[in-house]
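Translate sequence into structure tokens.
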Amino acid sequence: MSRSDKEIIELVHDLIESRIQPAVSSHGGKINFVSYGDGKLVLELSGACAGCAGSTMTLKYGVENMVKHYIPEVTTVEAIHDENSGVDPYYKDPTNVINTKEI
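Result follows.
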């Protein structure tokens, strides 16, 4: 039995809401559905996920594996980053002090 693109998109939305979003939101991230067609799923990474170097690992080893497990019609998952996120995912030292030693 093959599923229609509409059915697959509904499954993707459900999976994002029930399993993926709770995991990434605990780190300040957000993943949004962008498009699906011909086995290719495109997601938008926003919040702390936008621009984060670790988001590639999260996408490939977490999100993509989970989506392919539950929805085998999805053959590839790609991401775009939300350029308007406004969240800086990189750690900044709040003291802005470099190499302090008491002499």
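Note: The helical segments are 5-25, 55-70.
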